[in-house]
Amino acid sequence: MRASDLRMVFRFLLIVSFCSTGCGPSTKAPSPVQSVPSTVSVVPAAVPTAASQNSATAAKPKAKPAERKSSVPSNADPKTLFVVSSNGQPMEVESVRSTLPTERFEVAAADLRYDSTNFVVDSSKVSVESQQLYGTGQKRAGFTLPKGFEEVKENGYSSDGLPMCIICTRTGSKLALVPAGNCVVGSDSGPENSKPSITVYLDTYYMEILEVTIADYDKFRVDQREKKKPVPPAPLNPSSPPQTPVLGVTWKVALDYTHWAGMELPTEAEFEKAARGPNGLRTPWGDGKALISSRSLSATGSFPTDRSPYGIYDLAGNAMEWCADLYSPTAHVEASGSGTKEVPRNWPGPKKVREMNFRVVKGNGKDWSIWDRQGKEMSKGHPEVGFRGVLRIP
To answer: Is the same domain home to 275 and 317?
Structure first.
C-alpha cells in the first residue's frame, strides 16, 4: 500500500478562542500557545512511521479505530464553529461558509493517545496581523510627552522611538500607540453611508485602551465640584458597576471630559485605524467569523477577542462611542470626489452638513464591522453611547 494511503485523515468542528491581555504595566508578552476546548468530533487514524513513508511496500495498518465523538456545547455560537481538515501538512481552518487566508492555523496533534482536549493552536502561526503590545526600539532622544502623561517603560518603544504605552496621570487610564501612516476608512461593500472606502493619512496618536468608565467619569464630576465649576450631569447608568462604560452623556460633556483629561475625542478615521490596523481589517480580530456574540454591556476589556492590532479593547463591541466628526450620510462620497488624488491628511470629516446637530457614532455595528457608522443628535444623551479619548502627537 502506498505511503500516501497512510496519511492521517480527520475532520472536526473547532471553536477557536484567543485570550490575551492589554497594554500592561509589568507583564511579559502572552504565550502564543493556547489550549483549544473539547468541542470536536475526532476520527483517529494510524500515524505513518518513517519506515512506512520511505517504503512503497509498507504494511497495511490494522483495523481503523472506532470513531470518537465529542458533542458541541448547547450554548455554542454557530458563527464561531469551524471545519478543520488535515492531510498531514499545516491545517487550514475553513469557515463553514467561506475559506479565508486569515483563518489559517498550524495545529499540533502529536500523539493519538490524546483526544481533542490536548490539541493546541500556535497563535504565532496565525496570519492575522500580530497585536502590537511591546516595542523593541530605542527611546527617541529629546522626545517628551505633554504634561499630564507618562510613559509605561515596561512596554518598550516603537521603531521610531515612541513609547508603546502611556498613562494619563489625571485619570489613571492607559493609552496605546497608533503610529503614523495611511489607513482605510469605510468600505466599498458596506452600507451606503460607509461607501466608498477612502485612504487617509493620520499622524501619530495614542488612544485610551479602555472606554471611559463610570469610575473615571465620577472623578471628573468630583473635580469640577471641588473647583466650584458646573458639575456635569450624572450618566444614564449611575448604578452600574464602576468599571462599566459610562453611558448617556452628551457629545459636549464627552468633549469636556476629554479636555479635562488633556485629550480629544477621536475622529472617525482615528477610530477606524485604531480598530482595523494599517491593513484595514473588517473587525479588530480580522476578516473572518465573529469572535464575540454578546451585545450586553459589560465591564471594559471583558472580551479578549475584541482587541485591535494595537491592543485597544471594545472598539467593535460594548458601548457605542462618540467621535469628533459632524455626521453626513455622504461624507465618504464627498471625500472621494474632491477631484484630487492626494491622500487626505488627518481627515476631520465633512466641514458642512445639513444637520449640524448630529455627530458620528462608531462601534457595536451590524456583524461587528468597524466601518459601520451612525449619526446621533449631539445635544442628547443616548443610553447606548459612551466615549474614549485620544492624545495626538504632531
So the answer is: yes
